[in-house]
Design a protein that fits this description.
It is built from 1 helix and 9 strands, in the order ββββββαβββ. With 125 residues, the protein is mainly beta.
Length: 125
């Protein structure tokens, strides 16, 4: 099941998830959370530097075999987990996420490695 997906149009055979060779050398991004056991609700958090003008941050949540489940863009350096994501997060499964800097042309200029997390429920479903 795919939720709010926003993918840029891309030409050629290049992987749109890989930073381009022409990426700004000073663009960098680091993911802070969630990591490991995480209580619902939570926010995705990161620190970025050198983002080009017009850039957005693209948060992607994947299942354990790296299939994208949810993708959302923001201009902030954090993103509250979408309520719809709650439906996709079974209590005992591990999930992965990453955040990328996407320039005004829709090209990834930097991204974090995948980070894993498991949602711990603090209330009955």
């Amino acid at each position: 099941m795919f939720l709010a997906v926003t993918l840029p149009a891309c030409g050629g055979a290049a992987d749109p998830g890989q930073p381009r060779a022409s990426s700004p050398a000073n663009a960098a991004i680091e993911a802070f959370g969630p990591r490991g056991d995480t209580e619902w609700p939570f926010a995705f958090r990161w620190k970025a530097a050198g983002a080009p003008p017009g850039a957005v941050y693209r948060v992607t949540v994947l299942d354990p075999v790296e299939r994208p489940l949810v993708e959302q863009d923001t201009r902030e350096t954090s993103l509250q987990a979408p309520h719809d994501l709650e439906i996709l997060l079974p209590r005992t499964r591990r999930f992965l996420w990453r955040v990328a800097i996407v320039d005004g042309n829709g090209e990834v200029v930097a991204r974090t490695p995948l980070t894993d997390f498991t949602v711990k429920w603090t209330r009955a479903p």
